[in-house]
Amino acid sequence: MHRYTSILLFFLFLQLFFAVQPCHRVVTSAAAGGRWQLLQKSIGIVAMHMQLLNNDRVVIYDRTDYGKSNISLPHGKCRNNSWELVIKYDCTAHSVEYDVLANKFRPLMVQTDVWCSSGAVVPDGSLVQTGGFSDGERKVRTFYPCNCDCDWVETGDGLKARRWYATNHILPDGKQIIIGGRRQFNYEFYPKTSSPDVYSLPFLLQTNDLDSENNLYPFVFLNSDGNLFIFANNRAILFDYKTGKVVKTYPAIPGGDPRSYPSTGSAVLLPLKNLDAATIEAEVLVCGGAPKGSFEMATKRKSAERKFLKALDTCGRIKINEPNPQWVMETMPCSRVMGDMTLLPNGVVLIINGAGDGTAGWENGRSPALNPVLYWPGGAAGSRFEPVNPSTIPRMYHSTAILLRDGRVLVGGSNPHSGYEFTRVLFPTELSLEAFSPPYLDSKNKYLRPKIVSSTASKGKYIGFGQKLWVRFKVIGTLKADMVSVTMVAPAFNTHSFSMNHRLLALRNENVTYVRTSIYDIQVTTPSSGYLAPSGYYMLYVVHQYIPSIGIWVKLYS
């Protein structure tokens, strides 16, 4: 009886603990929008890494050295790996494929450890994933989309350097650049085409803090001029990866606090507009993180000495193509570390997941940030943040969030432990998947919501750069032609609070014409080059009064 009383008291403590956290309580106001849906109580693994593919299936994986997962490999398969650190003969899966349309999942088999790795979808639609831990740190793995029993294909040591906590970005020529990783102050390309194979990047050494690093999983964005914006720790550069030269050095973000892992903030490249301008205005938004010293305080060896400092509640926004760029700071409704930032089809940024105190790492976070926040880039300064309805599931370290084609956001993961822990811990290992539906999916918007009827970019057809594109759509209610736009969104590879390769382009709208009752045509122009939009698959949306249609897959190809 004493044992059960102790357990009851422990969970009462947890409820009280969450209830007293400022700004992180489960509060639902009548004015707040959005809704949550539990899709799967358990997919058998932690959704530590996620990537949506062009067949509306999501590849998900965690790591092989957690021990056994909660889902078996199919057909009696087992992985026999003498290098494995925990279980050398393992018949459980550490990756799954989630079918969005059917709300079903199936196990996949990875051969080596994919923990804290990175990846990108290449122009043919396949996911090329790189690096990991231990025996997986130099490996390259490919997943080709299919509708049946495809699985991971591993190609051995395809990398020249160990890549753990690195960042990948797809380039205009279809190759990937892999930047950084633990104790890797360099970058390389995949596939390999020339030598040397590894190139020095001193910026990563300069941003490395001695005890906490604070420069892992750097935020990387392809700029409209073909160079890379790279943010690590608390500062950024514009980098010409072809010549290995720094083109521009940006001022440190005000306050000087770190925003990179393990003081993990998040970042997005804000929607690219006016794509035919001589100089395109490109802006980067960096939100959240942890104050200097947070990681050291949270990881003290003696539990009595551990302190979980309040996370940062600021965002920095910078126009990276201006001659004298400066950070403009804004304050979020709540502090947040380990949050995820996702571009929605209407150009609004969703900030979701994470914690209010502490840092990333094992057991280092406190005060779950249950309330997502919308950031309206075009809003008036001081009124750009909009809190929306909360989840009831803490999504702490090792959580993920990605945009789906239907406009929902898939949310999963959370495991701040070195193994699967489900009982008597503050934040149990979370194997569930949820969907968050932003306010634009509320039923009150159904008369304004566009529905794509047909397009010259229907699935299976390529569209070229600088090409006229015609889309026919339906709106039941009154159409405001001057509030119709077409956007293209690149699906993200999401892990550790950063959505790699994620970008949104607002296409140039030439005219909207009436066809018949409730049916309209819109003509737009696709991006002019791979600097703006690297070749590959995108989700295309019609947006009316900030309410997007369900997207269609299109393939942009040179």
Mean of all residue-level pLDDT scores? 93
* Range of helix content: under 10%
Backbone shape: globular
Straight-line N-to-C gap: 70 Å
Radius of gyration: 23 Å
Major sheet characteristics? 6 strands, antiparallel
Instruction: Write out the strand line-up for the largest beta sheet, numbering strands in chain order.
Output: 7-6-3-2-37-38
Strand content: 35-45%
Strand runs, count: 44
Uncertain ranges? 1-22, 24-31
Helical region count?
A: 3
- Counting helices, strands and paired strands, the structural category is mainly beta
SSE arrangement:
Blueprint: H1 2-19, E1 35-40, E2 49-52, E3 57-61, E4 79-80, E5 89-90, E6 95-99, E7 104-108, E8 118-121, E9 127-130, E10 139-143, E11 153-157, E12 167-170, E13 176-179, E14 186-190, E15 199-200, H2 202-206, E16 219-222, E17 228-232, E18 235-240, E19 245-249, E20 266-269, E21 283-287, H3 294-298, E22 314-319, E23 328-331, E24 340-343, E25 349-352, E26 355-358, E27 365-368, E28 373-375, E29 385-387, E30 399-403, E31 409-413, E32 433-437, E33 451-455, E34 462-463, E35 468-474, E36 484-490, E37 493-495, E38 498-500, E39 503-506, E40 508-516, E41 519-525, E42 536-544, E43 547-548, E44 552-556
Parallel strand pairs: 34-44
Antiparallel strand pairs: 1-32, 2-3, 2-37, 3-6, 4-5, 6-7, 8-9, 9-10, 10-11, 12-13, 13-14, 14-15, 16-17, 17-18, 18-19, 20-21, 21-22, 22-23, 24-25, 25-28, 26-27, 28-29, 30-31, 31-32, 33-35, 35-41, 36-39, 36-42, 37-38, 40-41, 42-43, 42-44
Keywords: Oxidoreductase, Secreted, Signal
Signal peptide: 1-19
Protein name: Aldehyde oxidase GLOX
